[in-house]
Each structure stands twice: as C-alpha cells, then as structure tokens.
Amino acid sequence: MAEPTAPTVHYEHKFPVLLAILGAFALYLLLPESISLFPRWVVPIAGVFVLLPLIIMNPRRVSRETTWSRWLGIGFALALAAVNQYYVVVIVMQLVNGLIDGPSILLTAFAVWITNVIAFSLVYWELDKGGPYARRIEGVRDEAPQDFQFPQQQNDTRWDPVFFDYAYFSLSNMMAFSPTDTMPLTLRAKGLMAYQALTGFVLLALVISRAVNILT
C-alpha cells in the first residue's frame, strides 16, 4: 500500500513585497529636504542594505527562514513604520508653525500616507501567525497567535493570506479608520490598527484639509 504523499507547500512569492518596498523608497526620495532628518537617499540606501541578505536567502519565494532572518524582517518593517511616524510628526509641527507651503504639504502628506499603508502592511504580514514562512509550514511556530481573521478563513481553514491581503487591509484601515472585512483578534493587532488609523486621520483630516485651505 502506497504511503500518502505530503501536501505540496505553496510558498509565498516575494515580488509583491519587494515592489511595495521599492515604491516606498521612491516616495521617500520625493520628500522635501526641509522636513528630512537626514538626506532623502539615506532611508532607501539603508533599506536596500538591510534587504539584501533577505533577498539572497529567498530570491523568489519565502521558502526558508532562520532566526536572524525572522528578526531582520520584523525589524525592517517596524523601522520603516517608525521612520514614517517621524515624518507625520514633522508635517504637523511645520504646518502649525507655518514653515511649509501648501504644495509641499500636499506632496509630503500624500507620500507619507502611502508609505504608511506599505509600512503597516509589512508589519501585519510579518507578525500574523508567526510570519509568511510559518503560516505555510505546519509545526513552525504553531504557538504564534493569529492576529487577524480574514473572511476566507471562516470557510476554508487551509487558506493562507498573502502580502496583498495585508496591503488591502492596511489601505482600508487608513481610509475607513476601522476594520472592514478583516477582524483584529489580539491586543497588539488592535493597538497597531488604532495607531495606524490615528495617523491616517491626522494626515487626511488635518494636514491635507489645511493645505487645501492654503492653496485656496
């Protein structure tokens, strides 16, 4: 009697993740020098150096993982989100003090808003159920909490989210300031969502509206 074959593991493709990160780097290059803590090229260059080991390890799909690669991926996502929060604070301070003109506010707010979506989608993607590798390999960090429940998971326990699912969820949270079809299950997920929604509110309701008033 033939032994049952192990199910084929469909490792997640890295192209959407890298494309989103490169998009964030490109937006950082558009930020005005007046609001930058350091030259605009520093964040993209530093990010590329951090990403290189992860790309070399998994050039096409997330099919391998080590302790250092796991923490490097989480650290990169959190660092990108932290850098973006700095820009949110600087935009508000310069707006209050009248140190930045209307067109610059619009450009900066747009760039920071989009990079915030990307940064938080990376954080969600890295943390949920132990990360993209563990979500597809049984026995790897099975004790890791499930931070989010997607609609597909209610009917199909074998369904696993990909980066685009987290990017869509991050975008909807920035626009609606609340969960839409995906529910946060843990305290850290709710905390991250609340903070992201707050920054989205500040950028959309305060900064952009004020910039429009300046232009008119």
Describe the structure.
It is a single chain. This protein has one domain (15-215). Helices cover 60% and strands 2% of the residues. It contains 6 helices and 2 strands, in the order ααααβαβα. It has a two-stranded antiparallel sheet with strand order 1-2. The longest helix is centred in the middle third of the chain and has 30 residues, at 67-96. Mean pLDDT is 83; it is low at 1-6.
User: What is the β-strand count?
Assistant: 2
Succession of helices and strands: HHHHEHEH
Q: Into which percent range does the helicity of residues fall?
A: 55-70%
How big is the Rg? Answer: 19 Å
Low-confidence stretches: 1-6
| Count of distinct structural domains | 1
Determine the N-to-C terminus distance.
79 Å
Mean pLDDT: 83
Shape: globular
Task: Report the sheet with the most strands, covering strand number, pairing sense and barrel closure.
Answer: 2 strands, antiparallel
Strand content: under 5%
Total of helices: 6
Indicate the multimeric state: single chain
Q: Provide the structure class.
A: mainly alpha
The strand line-up of the biggest sheet is 1-2
Concise account of the structure shown:
By secondary structure, the protein is mainly alpha-helical.
Keywords:
216 residues; mainly alpha; 6 helices; 60% helix; globular; disordered N terminus
